[in-house]
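In the design runs reported in the main text, the only information available to the sequence generator was the tokenized backbone. The following block is the verbatim input for one such run; it is reproduced so that readers can re-run the procedure and compare outputs position by position.
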């Protein structure tokens, strides 16, 4: 059985390909919402749960996992590190599917190593800011920047919206929508909220980053891009065929 760490669109695509190739798959997603997006199959078991390194070892042992395929989001740093650690301890092969970076030029001066650096850079800037970074790191910005000029685009789930309100964001500053978005919709939102700065992650083309960057450029918005975490994945592929070939 193959353990697939998923929760992304490309992760779901990989699961479907593995099943078509005859593999039995155990898929883990971090949220119940992510679980509902995975199609049912007789050779598939899907679990919604966050795993630390010890949890990962227990799962690998319980289900007699032969390989772990990590298809999590490029910024799901802790999950990947936990999986790498567990696989090393149990001598199980870890394979990383890495989503390709966005194929658009970005000025180097607008690249930041982490969310904290970007928040500090924005702290004294004038003008509205849109955060398109998910919900996990919003508090980094609300702790340094007045919330009345922060506009966050997040998933429309009760848990996420409640978290936004808990860190001081008002309903008018919360844009709860399911992406990815077209360039035209991005531009409409930027203009609607009079955005001057936009913070994003390099989530790749499948994550809608290219459309965000193009829209921001056409709207004369300054874009801040958070670099991907630097992780030594070991075995890493950028396409599904290579993963299938290795597993076979």
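Verbatim output:
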């Amino acid at each position: 059985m193959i353990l697939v760490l998923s929760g992304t669109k490309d992760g779901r695509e990989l699961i479907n390909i593995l099943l078509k190739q005859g593999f039995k798959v155990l898929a883990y997603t971090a949220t119940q919402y992510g679980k509902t997006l995975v199609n049912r199959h007789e050779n598939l078991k899907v679990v919604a749960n966050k795993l630390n390194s010890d949890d990962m070892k227990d799962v690998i042992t319980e289900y007699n996992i032969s390989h772990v395929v990590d298809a999590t989001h490029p910024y799901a740093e802790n999950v990947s590190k936990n999986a790498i650690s567990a696989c090393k301890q149990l001598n199980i092969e870890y394979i990383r599917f890495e989503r390709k970076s966005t194929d658009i030029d970005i000025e180097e001066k607008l690249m930041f190593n982490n969310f904290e650096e970007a928040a500090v850079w924005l702290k004294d800037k004038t003008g509205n800011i849109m955060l398109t970074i998910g919900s996990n790191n919003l508090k980094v910005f609300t702790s340094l920047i007045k919330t009345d000029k922060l506009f966050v685009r997040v998933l429309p789930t009760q848990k996420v919206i409640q978290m936004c309100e808990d860190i001081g964001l008002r309903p008018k500053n919360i844009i709860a929508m399911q992406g990815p978005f077209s360039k035209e919709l991005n531009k409409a939102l930027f203009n609607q909220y009079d955005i001057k700065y936009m913070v994003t992650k390099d989530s790749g083309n499948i994550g809608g980053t290219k459309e965000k960057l193009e829209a921001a450029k056409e709207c004369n918005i300054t874009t801040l891009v958070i670099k991907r975490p630097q992780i030594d994945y070991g075995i890493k592929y950028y396409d599904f065929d290579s993963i299938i070939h290795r597993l076979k």
